[in-house]
Amino acid sequence: MASNSKSSTPMERYGYDVLLGSIAAFYVIMVPYTKVEESFNVQAMHDILYHRHHLQNYDHLEFPGVVPRTFIGALLVSILASPFILAMNLLHLPKLYGLIAVRMALGCIILSTLRFFRLQVRDKFGKHVEAFFVILTAIQFHVLFYCTRPLPNILAFGVVNLAYGYWLKGNFFAALNCLIFATVIFRCDMLLLLAPLGLMLLLMKSISLWEALIRCIGIALLCIGLTVLIDSIMWKRILWPEFEVFWFNSVLNRSSEWGTHSFHWYFTSALPRSLLVAYPLFLLGILLDRRILPFVLPIFFFIILYSKLAHKELRFIISSVPIFNLSAAIAATRIYNNRKKTFWKLLNFIMLGLLLISLGCTIITFMASYNNYPSGHALKDLHQIGHLPNNTNEQWVHIDPFSAMNGISRFCETEYPWRYSKEEEIPLEEFCHRNFTFLINEHRYIAGFQCLFSINGFSRTRLEIGFPPLLLSLKVYNSNPSIMASYGTMQRPGTSSTSPPLTQPDDLKDSARKKRNDFKLLCPFNIPISPEAAAVRIIRNLRYFGLYYTLFVWIILFISLVPRRKVSLILLVVMTIVTSLYLTLLHALPNSVVLHRIIDKRLVLSLLAIGTAVELILTRAAIHLVVSLACGIPIVLVHAVLRVSDDLFVGEEACAAGELVPLVHGKTGDVDIESPASV
Question: Could you tell me the membrane topology recorded for this protein (predicted)?
C-alpha cells in the first residue's frame, strides 16, 4: 500500500477532492447569501471575526432566536477563516467576501471529513465503488450545496462523516464517540442515529454493553462540560443549548409550529430529491451486496424514527446521504463491470440515462436556489445605486423580518455612511415618521416612500413546450406574507432622482392575464420564411439561448467522460469553474475598466475554450470532444433555426423585405404580478 501511495500522482490522490471542492466553491461564489436557518452561526462568525471579545456588540444578545445554539462550531470555522479575513481587511474588501471565506472554510472542513469516509470506502469496497461514490455525490445538489452552509445540521454532518469512516474501519467505539459529540454539541436529534447504530453493534456482538458504557459516558460528560463552559460565557447564563433544543422540539413538540408533513414525506419527497439516481440504485445495492445491509439498516431506522416528528425538512436527514450513496455506488459498479452482458447492458443504458436526468435536475435546482435569496441581491443593488457621491449624511436602511430571513446578514453590511436597523413590529404607517432613508421591505407601497426597484424571487417551476422545457417562475410581489417572493427597495421622495410612475396592482394583474392568454396562441417553433430570416433567427437565438446551448454540449461532453476519463473530467470541471468565476466578476463589477474595456471578454472566453480543448487533447480525450461537438452542434442549429418567440415575427418580416432589424432583445419593463419569467 505504501509503495502505491508514493507512486500515485497528486491528481490521483486529490483529484476527487478537487472535483467536489470545485463544485462546492462554485455554489458558494454563485449563491453567497444565507437564509434564516443559518442566521445564528452566520452572525456568530461575523461577530467573532469583527467584534472579537466585545460580547455586548454580538447579534445574538439582541436577536436570540427561538432556541439557543452552540458557539463551538462558529468558533472552529472562524479560527480557520481568520487569516483570510485579516488579509481582506488589509485590502479593504467588502465584508461579503468574509462571508465567502467562512463558507469556504466550512466547506473545507466538511469535505475533509467526507474524504476520510471516502478513503475507507475505497479500502473496503474498492476503487470503482469509490469512483461511483464521487460521481453520484458530484451530480447531486444538496450535499455539495449544503456543505458550505453554516447550519447546525451541517456541523453535525461533518462529525457523522467521521463516525461513518470509523464504522467502516471497524473502530466502533470511535464511531459511537463521534455520534455522541455530534448529539451533545451540534444536533440533539443525532440521538436517533446513535441509538440504532449502538443497538445493532450490540446485537452483532461487535461491542459489549459494559465496555460501551465505560467508554461513552465519559465522552458524553466531557462534551456536556465543554458546551456548557463555552456557551454559558457567550450567552451570559448557565446553558446547555442542545438540551433546550431537545426540550423545545421533542418534549414540547413546538417545532410543528413551523409546518408539518406526512409520515412518509422523507421517503417520497426528501430522499428522491436529494439522492436522485442514487435512490433506486441504493435499493438495488442492498440486493446485490450483503455487506452493505448492516450499514443501511441503522440509517433506515434513523429516518423512520425521525418521521415521527411532524416538522420535517430535508436538511434534517442529510446525514443519511453518504451511506445511501455508498449502497448506490456498489450497485452502479456491479452494473458497469457487467455491462457487456445482455441484461446488464440494458441496466447500464438505463443508469446512464438516469445519471443525465439527475444532472439536469441538479442544474434546475441550482437555478432555483440562485433566485431564492432576493433580499441579499436587493441590498447589494442598493449599495451600488443608493449612495450619492456628494452626500455625506448617514444613509439609514431598515430591513424588515422577511428580508432578514431571505438573504441579508451582517456580512452584507458596508461601512459609513450606511447604517442598518432590523427593528421589528413597526407599523407601516409609522415608517414615514422615522429617520429611515431606505427600506428593504416585502410591501410594495408604503406611505412616505417611493419604490426604486424590486427583486425577483423564486416561486415555482413550470413546464413549457420549447427550449428550455422547464422554466422557473419568478414573482415580484406576493400579498401573502408567509410566502416571500420579492423585496422592494424604497426611498423617501426627493432624496434621489425621480423614478417612473408605478402601475397599480389591478392593472398589473390584468396585464399578466392578457400575456398568459396571448402566450397560449403562439407556437414556439416554425419554419423561417426565407434564408435571410433563418440567419437572423440563428444569430438571435445563439445570443438569447447561448448559455443553454453551451450547457447542452457541456452535458454531452461530461457524460462521455464519466466512465474512464477521470483526469479529463476533473480538468473540464476546473475550467468550467474558472470560466464561471470570470463571468461572475464581469457581473459583479459592471464599472470595471480593466474587465470591460482593457480586457476583451470575447478574447478571454476564447482563450478559456482553447485551453479546455488543449487539456482534453493532452489527456487523450480529443475523440470525446469531437463526438460531443458532432452530436451537439446539429441539434443546436436545428433548434436555433426553428425556435421563434412572439417578438421575432416583425423582425423576420422586415428581414424578408430587405430592412435592417435588431439582433438583440430589448429590455423589458417591470415584471407583472404572477407573470412567469424564465431563467
Answer: Multi-pass membrane protein
